[in-house]
Amino acid sequence: MQITILGGGGFLGRRLAHRLAKDGALGDRAITGLTLFDLQAPPPVEAPFPVRCLGGNIADPAAVTAAIPAGTEVVVHLAAVVSAQAEADFDLGLTVNVHGTLAVLQACRALTQGPRASGAAPPRVVFTSSVASFSGGQDARLEDDARQLPGNSYGAEKAIGELLLQDASRKGFLDAVNIRLPTVIIRPGRPNKAASSFVSAILREPLLGLETDLPVPEEFAVWICSPRRAVEWFLHAMTMDTKPLGLDRGINPPGRSATVGKMLSALEAVAGPEARAKVRHAPDPAIEAIVGTWPASFTAERARRLLGFSEQESLEEIVQGFIEDDLAATRAERGL
Amino acid sequence: MQITILGGGGFLGRRLAHRLAKDGALGDRAITGLTLFDLQAPPPVEAPFPVRCLGGNIADPAAVTAAIPAGTEVVVHLAAVVSAQAEADFDLGLTVNVHGTLAVLQACRALTQGPRASGAAPPRVVFTSSVASFSGGQDARLEDDARQLPGNSYGAEKAIGELLLQDASRKGFLDAVNIRLPTVIIRPGRPNKAASSFVSAILREPLLGLETDLPVPEEFAVWICSPRRAVEWFLHAMTMDTKPLGLDRGINPPGRSATVGKMLSALEAVAGPEARAKVRHAPDPAIEAIVGTWPASFTAERARRLLGFSEQESLEEIVQGFIEDDLAATRAERGL
Ligand SMILES: NC(=O)c1ccc[n+]([C@@H]2O[C@H](COP(=O)([O-])OP(=O)(O)OC[C@H]3O[C@@H](n4cnc5c(N)ncnc54)[C@H](O)[C@@H]3O)[C@@H](O)[C@H]2O)c1
Ligand SMILES: NC(=O)c1ccc[n+]([C@@H]2O[C@H](COP(=O)([O-])OP(=O)(O)OC[C@H]3O[C@@H](n4cnc5c(N)ncnc54)[C@H](O)[C@@H]3O)[C@@H](O)[C@H]2O)c1
Q1: Which of A70, A83, B178, B243 has the CA that lies 20 to 30 A from B200?
Q2: CB distance A9 to ligand 1 below 6 Å
């Protein structure tokens, strides 16, 4: 089985690539090739199968076509401009998040339609949409059929990407699973341009011994998942039976609703009160204006009961998971 | 006040242009210029203000920019590839309905941002989305916050257009009102490529003395409005206060849910049993598969109570309205 990860040099893309390399197989089928595609060619990954690392722009149809060669059965489309950046640069967000997803659609479609067609089944496409495509805010607990009314350009572009891939699935051009990811914590490395960057920072920076700012009150609730869980969901979405999805390719996976206060308590339980003491209250209305519109909770019934997506582990396990998986590498990367 | 109608050579665009020419004003402000834009330059309209008629492709940014000159205060964006055609030609639907709407967004944005900017308020954009952007089918009665889960490419493209213009409104690039039009009956002229073409045909063709096919059962219900009502809604949307809309620029206007049987009874009441006898039952599963997913009813509370959209008139009045407004011209056009 041949797999492509678009945005394969990013946080979740690299993690998924390493997992596929370790497993050597997806479900009960051996992996025969992996393509990692990102703006800059991602660093190579040791694997029992050939790995191609390509650099290119997701909004460039030729580059995306090269990244999805004939015989590709699964495409994981993670390439995106994140929330605060898409808000600051409207055109960049449109180019990467909308035109990029259109290029993915057309490259996948060409595998089974037109001159490059091989007679194979339409490729599975796992697309990462986001909780940011919804409104509702702190008091919301959204049902599975909740309307996407985005309060930010990134969320609008993700909702558009879902509509495109959902319609392409109905047409038989590809076979999409659109996962609306919660805020993934704890993100390793440095703070990034996502408005939700602080949700990871308030746990990661203290574990590195560094002070950090909390821009929202401790009662502020966030819909979260761990990187371990996100990778499990990707593996499930890459192989699951999509017939039960019908027309509706959008999935709210079973994340966890947690207040910042509860996250800090988990930090304290794992790393002691001195870790928690590194977090300074520094209200930031600009950040709160963006993340404050995202819903803090979902019922996620369909993903849980019908579709077999696994449950999110506890906050303590998330903190522990970061220490096991990422703390040393993050220290090294940041020269700490 | 300067106004542009994109798709100004179509059914509703021409009707709106004639109405503006007759009124000479929009609300309490005189109209100082009107641009009609369509694939072929629309025929000129007699008016107390200058009318420019331009031909061009809505997916061509330069052509759209020319159609929306500096000083434009209201843009009515009606240019579209309709349902059955967008379903038959996926790329054409994407080009016209998605890239076209993106070109409209950028041309409007350039009026108040960047080098062409005049310091004026963001232009009002009235965009015609469609009932086809929803699912639900015959038994549905959709609330105002119902999710758009389109079962056809046209509906997906309309939902995408809404998301784009809604986000552009939030950013202050323009000021959109996205009206999800019901099926507009009675469409004059000839049958067209909309899957809903029959809903007009079963009334229009008998009034012309012609036989016609009914592809669905008489119990089949459709969410409809008249062309007179659509024009009233456009005039309202062109001038209304958009503050009460907030983030949510999508409007389900107060159409009417009617079964085909009730429409045929209205035909009979106005034009006699010999008119109704011209309608032959000829089930067409392909047509029913498309229109069968569209919801047959909406509550339309927000449009009615909060936003001041006027109520749809009765079925008899719709039939009568066609006879008054369109029967003679349709006869002439078709050489009957
Ligand atoms: N991490 C989260 O909390 C979270 C939450 C919701 C959704 N998501 C979505 O999940 C996906 C993966 O998230 P992540 O945290 O790994 O993000 P990331 O930013 O670490 O990775 C995204 C990758 O896309 C690449 N990219 C950006 N523009 C590109 C372009 N023009 N061409 C090619 N590649 C380009 C970036 O270089 C980056 O490596 C993204 O689509 C993101 O929007 C993430
Ligand atoms: N009439 C209905 O029942 C109905 C229902 C729901 C929504 N709508 C929407 O309302 C709008 C107006 O409807 P209508 O009945 O007047 O449609 P219409 O087809 O009569 O008019 C649309 C116009 O767009 C023009 N057009 C198509 N492609 C173009 C392109 N590439 N560049 C420039 N112009 C192009 C066509 O030439 C046509 O004149 C459309 O957007 C339609 O999707 C109509």
Answers
A1: B178
A2: yes
